[in-house]
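Record type: monomer structure entry
Structure origin: computed from sequence
Chain ID: A
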Amino acid sequence: MDIAEEGFYARREPIPWTGWVASLALVLVMLFASHSFQFLFADQITEGLAERPTARSNPAYAALFLVQFSLFFVLLFFHMLRNGIRIPLIVAIGFCAYVGSSIFWSISPGTTLAPAVLFSYLVLAAYTTSAFLPPRLFVRHYFFVCAFILTASFILYFVWPEAAGSQRWIELGPFEFEFSGVMASKNYAGIVFASAAILALNGGHIGISNLWRFLVFVMAIVAVFLSNSATAMVIVVALGALSLLIKIFSHNWRALLFGCLVLIAVLIPALPFISVGDVLSIIGRDPTFTGRAALWDGAYSAFPNYPWMGHGYFAFFDAGKFSPAWEFWEDFRFFRADNFHNSSVDILVSLGIVGLVVMLGAIIKAANVVNNQSIDPGARLCLGLVLASFLIGSMMEFAIFHYNYIATFILFYALFAGMWRYGE
């Protein structure tokens, strides 16, 4: 089946009221999970590698979260009334139950509880979105949300530059200022910027005009450059090359894209053991992955204490006086890391070997969305490339399976979309 098969490309169906509500909820959760505009609500923004701005205590921010939560609750309730409990919902509940149940073996149940609840919210929101919005609409919404984020980010940069980035925490590279735009972290923002660039390259397959694609691509590339995020640059180069290969070998694009997604999934846990320091030095980057190598060494020294089930979801970074993180933090005098900057390492410490297997299984299942022939080929291609962006980002950040980041939402949307038969 060719990517641009006309029967799919030309299909237009009316959107019911549930689709409009789901679209609104989707936009809100994307802004929430990309940590956009938190600076408007946060009590304090702390600079540094690990500290993140927080808006948890702000009533306006809490009200916005309640709005999106209510929309998803209504949609999920309506869907269950009309369709009952389907297999994808059972799978969603299973993931939520597994992560949530880690409070029973967590070394700090109180620390695990809130992240587990937020993780479950993103999983169920992704399930609900997949039930009401097919991938074509989903990816188009994602594209235009990225366009809005990019536009707002550059406006913020010229109006209030201090809120649009921060000074480098170490002297490295050509930039002293790192651009994050309206998002809270340049590392997480860079992944979103890069995914927008890749989607702009391929957006013609889902009917996005050339003008929009050009504008978003230019803004995204400039944003990636200003962010000075090496991970974002790798995403643009690697997936840009993959996009070209898919165009050349268009009749085998599904096998090519699925194979690349599986390869990236393997590289996420493998990267901490791959020595590429010399290569990084040649291209002018920090051979320790900007200090990540030391974080990974500390994680693997803690792993043997709870190898199979882990310390409990996010419990290792409990700030209590008996927390195992204090010994880990002793090696880092300038900041207190709140994650290990690699999704597989974070999950291995949080949920053990079992959790790592569950995470990798979820990635492979999500990658299989490219083979769901009830979805138009262009949408499968674009969704697969967006997923690939966040998977590559997961090599250097706690992205996939993070309790409050858009990568988790994208992963589970792809997973559930691969399970539906759209059009039935």
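Annotation 1: The beta strands are 165-167, 177-179.
Annotation 2: The longest strand covers residues 165-167.
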